[in-house]
């Protein structure tokens, strides 16, 4: 492929993406939740919830306190949530103060696609590989369905600190 063909392709792609983003996303992209899988590039505090360590600057720039991130500020997933009008994602592994009404973040620092064959303390590789994160999502869905099934039988919603909307998975954005 020569330079002219590449430039033409890029121009067509930019025009297509630009026109798609302006016209349809403002009226049709009504995602109710985001479920994120990944590593430190999108970990909003899951790793530090599982393995607490000394506090550092993990999020100090934007949040003005350590929040368990591998960065000092916001992540791309934060900007995506903000652009969709959703709050920042709570880490799945952080139970206190979490709000899963708009999704959950299963990403953890140092995660891999394949299951690690060694220990976190030997190599620094997270035990939360993609397969583990997907299993966590499956378990999360089962528990949400059980919660709504049992609350519908009682005729009243339990007074829980963590509130999850029924059928949140119908319009979600997996990331």
Automatic annotation (TrEMBL):
Gene3D superfamilies: SGNH hydrolase
A Gene Ontology molecular function term of the record: hydrolase activity, acting on ester bonds
InterPro entries to which the protein is assigned, alphabetical: GDSL, SGNH_hydro_sf
Keywords: Glycoprotein, Signal
Signal peptide start and end residues: 1-25
Family: Belongs to the 'GDSL' lipolytic enzyme family.
Name under which the protein is recorded: GDSL esterase/lipase
């Amino acid at each position: 492929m020569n330079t002219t063909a590449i430039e033409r392709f890029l121009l067509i792609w930019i025009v297509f993406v630009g026109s798609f983003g302006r016209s349809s996303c403002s009226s049709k992209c009504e995602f109710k939740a985001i479920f994120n899988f990944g590593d430190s590039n999108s970990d909003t505090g899951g790793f530090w919830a599982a393995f607490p360590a000394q506090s550092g600057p993990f999020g100090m720039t934007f949040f003005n306190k350590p929040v368990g991130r591998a960065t000092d500020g916001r992540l791309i997933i934060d900007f995506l949530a903000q652009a969709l009008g959703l709050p920042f994602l709570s880490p799945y592994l952080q139970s206190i103060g979490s709000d899963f009404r708009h999704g959950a973040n299963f990403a953890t620092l140092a995660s891999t696609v394949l299951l690690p064959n060694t220990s976190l303390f030997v190599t620094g590789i997270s035990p939360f590989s993609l397969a583990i994160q997907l299993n966590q999502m499956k378990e999360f869905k089962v528990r949400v369905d059980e919660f709504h099934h049992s609350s519908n039988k009682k005729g009243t919603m339990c007074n829980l600190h963590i509130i999850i909307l029924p059928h949140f998975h119908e319009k979600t954005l997996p990331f």
